């Protein structure tokens, strides 16, 4: 019943913050990605509380891994990295063609639980939640000489 309660949580769907900002990048320019979570849903290290057979059940999702989907058929992960902004972010991708890319981050959650405020125990299960897609426009810049 605890595993089912874990699977039934309204998990937060991961989102992406990208640099360059504005969801527009250029072919052959590294694009930096960072995982984010919205206020809606239960995210990593938050606690979902419910009732199980009259007992207070607390389940705390724990981030197990992230898979970054770049929208061009390529992915990174699974990894535990949240990524980050330029210049230190370690999740980055360089696009080789122009187009609209449906990017996202998929989150694999593990969890721990406790009943009636007792000791935390690990749930031997994981749930993968597909992230909210963010469209990234990849453009191609053309150099021109003017006299």
Keywords:
1 helix; three-stranded antiparallel β-sheet; 147 residues; seven-stranded mixed β-sheet
Explain how this protein is built.
This protein has 147 residues and is mostly beta strands. Helices cover 4% and strands 51% of the residues. It has one helix at 2-7; strands at 15-19, 24-26, 30-36, 48-52, 55-69, 75-79, 92-94, 99-115, 121-129, 134-139. The strands form two sheets. Strands 2, 4, 5, 6, 8, 9 and 10 form a seven-stranded mixed β-sheet that branches. A three-stranded antiparallel β-sheet has the order 1-3-7, with no helix packed on it. It is elongated. It starts with a helix and ends in an 8-residue tail after the last strand.
Question: Helices, strands, pairings?
Answer:
Elements: H1 2-7, E1 15-19, E2 24-26, E3 30-36, E4 48-52, E5 55-69, E6 75-79, E7 92-94, E8 99-115, E9 121-129, E10 134-139
Parallel strand pairs: 2-10
Antiparallel strand pairs: 1-3, 3-7, 4-5, 5-6, 5-8, 8-9, 8-10
Summarize the structure.
With 147 residues, the chain is mainly beta. It is 4% helix and 51% strand.
| Low-confidence residue ranges | none
Number of helices: 1
What level of helicity do the residues show? Answer: under 10%
Q: How far apart are the first and last residues' alpha carbons, in Å?
A: 74 Å
Strand content: over 45%
Shape: elongated
For the residues shown, what is the average pLDDT? 93
Q: Please write the string of helix (H) and strand (E) elements.
A: HEEEEEEEEEE
* Number of E strands: 10
What is the SS-derived class? Answer: mainly beta
């Amino acid at each position: 019943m605890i595993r089912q309660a874990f699977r039934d949580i309204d998990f937060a769907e991961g989102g992406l913050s990208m640099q360059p900002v504005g969801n527009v990048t250029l072919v052959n320019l590294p694009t930096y990605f960072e995982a984010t979570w919205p206020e809606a849903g239960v995210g990593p290290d938050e606690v979902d509380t419910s009732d199980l057979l009259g007992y207070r059940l607390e389940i705390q999702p724990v981030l197990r891994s992230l898979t970054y989907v770049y929208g061009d058929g390529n992915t990174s992960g699974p990894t535990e990295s949240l990524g980050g902004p330029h210049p230190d972010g370690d999740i980055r991708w360089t696009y080789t063609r122009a187009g609209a890319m449906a990017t996202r981050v998929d989150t694999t959650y593990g969890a721990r639980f406790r009943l009636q405020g007792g000791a935390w125990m690990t749930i031997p299960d994981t749930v993968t939640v597909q992230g909210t897609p963010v469209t990234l426009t990849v453009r191609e810049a053309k150099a021109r000489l003017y006299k």
